Amino acid sequence: MSHGSGGRAMAQLIDELFYRYLGNPLLEQGNDQALFQPPPGRLVTSTDGHVISPLFFPGGDIGSLAVHGTVNDVVMSGARPLYLTASFILEEGLPLADLDRIVASMGAAARAAGVQVVAGDTKVVERGKGDGCFIATTGIGVLPDGIEIAGERARPGDAILVSGSIGDHGVAILSKRENLGFETEIASDSQALNDLVAAMIDAVPGIHCLRDPTRGGLATTLNELALQSQVGMLIREPAIPVRAEVNGACELLGLDPLYVANEGKLIAICPGDQAENLLAAMRAHPKGQDAAIIGEVVEDPHHFVQMETTFGGSRIVDWLAGEQLPRIC
Amino acid sequence: MNPDQHATGRLALHDATQGELIRVRGLVQGVGFRPTVWRLAREAELVGDVCNDAEGVLIRLWGSSAEIDAFCQRLMLECPPLGRIDGIERRLCAGAAPAAFTIVASAGGPVTTGVVPDAATCAACAAEIHDPADRRFRYPFTNCTHCGPRLSIVRSIPYDRANTSMAPFAMCPACAAEYRDPADRRFHAQPNACPECGPRVWLVGPDGADPTAADPQALDAVDAASRLLARGAIVAIKGIGGFHLACDATNAAAVAALRARKRRAAKPFALMARDLDVVRAICRVGPAEAELLRSAVAPIVLLDRLDAPAPGTAAIAEAVAPAQSGLGVMLPYSPLHHLLLQDWERPLVMTSGNLSDEPQCIDNDDALQRLAGIADAWLLNDRAIVNRVDDSVARVMGGQRRWLRRARGAAPAPLALPEGFAQAPRVLALGGELKNTVCLLSPGASQGTAQGGDQEAAQGADQGGCQEAAQGAGQEASPGVSQGTNQVTSQGTSQVQATLSQHLGDLEEARTAREFEQTVALYRQLFEHEPAVIAVDQHPDYRSSVLGRRLAEDLGARLVEVQHHAAHLASVLADAGWAADAGPVVGLMLDGLGYGRDGTLWGGELLVGAYRHWSRIGHLQPFRLPGGERAIREPWRCLYAQLVAGLDWPDVRRRWGDVEVIAALTAKPLAQLDALIAKGLNAPLTTSAGRLFDAVAAALGICREGIAYEAQAAIELETLARQALDEAGYPFAFADDEETWQLDPAPMWAALLDDLAAGLSAERIAARFHLGLAEALAELAARAAQAHGIETVALSGGVFQNRTLFEAVTAALRRRGLRVLSHTQVPANDGGLALGQAAIAALAGGS
Ligand SMILES: [Fe+3]
Ligand SMILES: [Mg+2]
Ligand SMILES: [Zn+2]
Ligand SMILES: [Zn+2]
């Protein structure tokens, strides 16, 4: 990857690469914008910048992540995702082979998620001014009438479900980046959740909240929801699915899996009496086979997220101002 | 308080009978003070009256100077057991003498600010419940003005029965007569009760039925509970400030069952023994300890076990306090306990009624539910516990009482602040994260109406109160006050009071966190406290800090964030009476950890300064905690981190590879730990002294893989050290540059590993570590003190609850000619933090 005047040929190469892997009729219109007819229903849009080191990790790379991240943000409203746009910031010196891999992976991820990348842009920055590759994506989806899923809709008595094991992505990234050399390789859970969510809404149209617990993990996302809905939450530690190798790595590293990022999991909150239905629908789907009911929404003026621990105690699962700093004196 | 001072400050003499206004300040309300005044006045055949008002107690007395002198002297000497006189001021007052001496109803307005601590059953009440002829024979809620529940039953001020959980119990005529009679021990005893009219007690079995009925030999429910205990049962007992779980301490099976059901693996259980003789059969009890056990606080006192229990004494089950040389013991402090233990020649386990880590239950239904898997029976009663108050815990160190936990019986008695705090604003300090307490600074009695004003204003207010009181009694108003204030006694301290709450617990625990805000609100209400300043710790994530920041915003109060160890320093200074302007001291602050000014975790700090200014001039060698909080729970991590910080690991393996602990460490996932340490990834830098103790404990195989409760490793290490106290200490290196005094443990580690290789006993190694560290710390402090021209060293932080270290550091400092300040009124650990925060915030300028 080179930068400046000598980059003209390079720009063409990149364009070809994009058409090869991401090509679709809208992208191929060749204009500075994509023009399409909005389908019936309400439009949903979301945007996300993807910055990750390393660019390639077990279970994915920045290309697939850039699709999954934004698709999932659109999907958490209950919408069906349709289109993506992508903006690439490439650092001078990025091997073309790496870019090829990234864009190929992005294309595959988009196809799997049923979305088209309809507009894009590429900038190359000087060496040292980027971390190889940054990708910002914007997604557009359509939400059928009658579905109301939002962060402020959790109510006391609701059940809290999670679609599978937590902490996989964050631990995978950390162990790869820091070269921690664990015996078993831990793979990221990065995946698009559009089909899982569609199945869930089919089964339980009255879902109250959906959110993907990405940065800050399950703990932070539950706190966000509790605050937004002005409720408290009570979760049970033994009910929270954590893979043994993730748990082992967390114990060794001293990390709390509740605070570790995920990229292919969701939290669902639904009326308590529909929880079993929803759980069954999730478990019937390959992306939700380890789904679990992990707790319930309660009334609480403090909006605490509280966890009954494996040892029978109960502790506050807090917002953290920064990194996890020990508080024990 | 020295009654001789009486003679010195007098301005006015009168031989003829004249009226005097006598103002008494201190802990003089709700403790039976007015009846004492009444009795003394009657015995001296003096006339006048006495009333409570916003500033304490106000007495009008007619007599000669000499008679009134004598009266004041007796008042000082015969102050009621729960009271405390901080000062008496006298001045002349005109007006005609009344015909008799009377107790006058309280003048309106805010009469009782503040609430006194719960007090252990007094001797007179204890005698009554054991006297078959007494109407309170075997009555578990017997109390009087000298004893009984206070803080635990109060809902709001003023402290009147209607505002306590005794409100639903209407006094019978006999009790009401006692309550109204100034000559009676129960005059105005708010919780006064008897079997006719007061709360009752009952026993509940697991099936909900009352086992008392099934036991024809039982005298009553309390006796039936006692008999269940004798048969090995675990009984939940509702006490003064919460529930206990009790069982026979000599019944190994019962103790083991309690441990398993409570899910409490190792943390010692407290004991309750009927009397001192029972205690003396198992523990050494010195005079200071005996006094402490028998005090109205009746705390759990940590005592050394006898090497061999007295002959004929049943052995305490090993599981009561595993790997501990000491036992925590208390005496009965409520009539119910006295009755329960009446036939017990051996101690009962009396541990808090909770699942491990949770706060103890205070409510019947809650206890029935939460303790369902633990207790075999519940001894319940229908007097609600309004405020959870844990048992206080104390230990005698350096010949003095030291609080490890200040709660029942001690809180919320006010602490007098040293000189120089008179202008302090109203401060609310919210303490730390664990062992949390909160502290309120309030203008004391004399400041109640005079803050910012002059003395005349205060006198005017006095006069107004007196007039109202006098009129209320149907007497002549007596205007006209002599100008001089006859200062009878003075403590030489400001009148600003610090009220430190009872131990509230661990704010990471959900119930405690939930109740924290309520408790803060309750204290503000009980002490009529509208804070102008709110003080919090600098840690970004302490719950108390988060709440404090929000509260400051809500109340428009000024927020002061206080560094953790600066707060420890100020806490010990305020505790030891160090005046606001008395100049800097050297402070040795040793604890687990606190958030440092530089964002690292401090915990082995050498400070110089006082309340207003301080700087960090030294510390233990920093090292990384691999795995953050995990390293606090797994001492082997601290050990490895200490070794690689001070020594070269390949070299360690070459030289001491055969030593068991080095081999054990080698089998650990060290590559990952190295990665964490090298990258500083979840491996915060710390100077913690507590973690150094953990590391040494791990080297000796104590709690190497994990601790079951906070400070377990250090406590067990000290237990070992006490068994070999005459050793020479390990060397430490002084890595001082121009302005920083650092203590490097590397040479200690080399010597310790040599000793391990040579097969020296763990006891001797533990002792050598304690003594070496104490000597090095004292030397470090002494060098710093000399460099700064300072002669006083203050000690604070939880590590100084280690008696061996505390006594050795103190002795080593004194040998170097230094004066030592240490805690006697508040705990050295984070339980005393709020006092220091408050003192600093009080003097921190700003608008
Ligand atoms: Fe501390
Ligand atoms: Mg996002
Ligand atoms: Zn009494
Ligand atoms: Zn009665």
Automatic annotation (TrEMBL), chain A:
Gene that this sequence comes from: hypE
Name listed for the protein in its UniProt record: Hydrogenase expression/formation protein HypE
Domain PurM-like C-terminal: 155-307
Protein family (similarity comment): Belongs to the HypE family.
Species the sequence originates in: Halochromatium glycolicum
Ranges for domain PurM-like N-terminal: 30-142
Domain of life: Bacteria
Taxonomic classification: Bacteria, Pseudomonadati, Pseudomonadota, Gammaproteobacteria, Chromatiales
UniProt-listed GO biological process terms: protein maturation
SUPFAM superfamilies: PurM C-terminal domain-like, PurM N-terminal domain-like
Alphabetized InterPro entries for the sequence: HypE (IPR011854), PurM-like_C_dom (IPR010918), PurM-like_C_sf (IPR036676), PurM-like_N (IPR016188), PurM-like_N_sf (IPR036921)
UniProtKB/TrEMBL annotation, chain B:
Pathway noted in the entry: Protein modification; [NiFe] hydrogenase maturation
The keyword Cytoplasm is assigned to this record: no
Alphabetized UniProt keyword annotations: Hydrolase, Ligase, Metal-binding, Zinc, Zinc-finger
UniProt-listed PROSITE patterns: ACYLPHOSPHATASE_1, ACYLPHOSPHATASE_3, YRDC
Leader peptide range in chain numbering: none
GO molecular function per UniProt: acylphosphatase activity; carboxyl- or carbamoyltransferase activity; double-stranded RNA binding; ligase activity; zinc ion binding
Single Gene Ontology BP annotation: protein maturation
Acylphosphatase-like domain residues: 19-105
Keyword check for Zinc-finger: yes
EC number: 6.2.-.-
Catalytic residues (UniProt): R34, N52
YrdC-like domain residues: 219-409
Record field: catalytic activity: C-terminal L-cysteinyl-[HypE protein] + carbamoyl phosphate + ATP + H2O = C-terminal S-carboxamide-L-cysteinyl-[HypE protein] + AMP + phosphate + diphosphate + H(+); an acyl phosphate + H2O = a carboxylate + phosphate + H(+)
Family according to the record: Belongs to the carbamoyltransferase HypF family.
Protein name, per record: Carbamoyltransferase HypF
Lineage, top ranks: Bacteria, Pseudomonadati, Pseudomonadota, Gammaproteobacteria, Chromatiales
